[in-house]
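This part of the workshop introduces the protein records we will be handling. The question running through the whole workshop is how a given chain folds. To make this concrete, we reproduce a full record directly below:
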Amino acid sequence: MSTSRPSTNPLPAPVPTLLQTGIGVVAPYDFALDREIWRWVPDNVTLHITRTPYAPLAATVEMAVQISDPELIARTTYDVLAVGPLAVAYACTFGSFVGGLLGEAALVDAMVGAGAPAAVTTSGALLLALRRLGINRIATVTPYTNDLTAGLTAFLAQAGIEVVATAGLGLIAQIWAVPYETTVELVRSVDSAAVEAIFISCTNLPTYDVIAGLEAAIGKPVLTANQVTMWSVLELAGYQGIGPGQRLLSASERSVPSV
């Protein structure tokens, strides 16, 4: 009669606990660039993305006003707090500049009031980035209609930033479909010796792959909505974003903590 012998195969090693930091992102209901914002994120950070409730509106001033309601942003922020993010970003440019500096501050207060340990908006992050780089005079590129582009200029003026040139596409939908070539052409069209940096507005406008090349070509910082948002919220959580060749990321003074 044969007898069975115990297996000599070793048991698999236990899988170590996943060590990660959570960051919350509140985005407008039509946000389409989840994968782009992940590109700035280190491997030991995870994004918890939520969206505002859908509303049948085009990308106009009416939509900007609707998604800039502090109570709405507070409720949407609360939805992502169950997973314990260290910081929360409101990833929308026109939704955070349409109310001016006071409106932007009210959005941050609403997110913190809802329970976010720390919070930032895209427009607030832009101002932080400009201060970090010591820039006071910029040109802007937007996908917006003229009234929204003017609203961005007014917001920046309130913060003491001079906008010396602008270019817009006049779009009210499917901004995420704008090809890189179009964005690059707009940036080149507004550049001049008077411009210290260029800001590409709208978190629904793809920009990651053009930033470094444009900066090398024109010799000055090119900031974008998703870039400044992720740079700022990562710093709030104690991390540095990933952006090879991007001046804002290389100017960051924080080191990535060991976890």
Observations:
- The longest strand covers residues 21-27.
- Confidence is low (pLDDT under 50) at residues 253-259.
- The CA atoms of residues 6 and 12 lie 16 Å apart.
- The chain has eleven helices and eight strands.
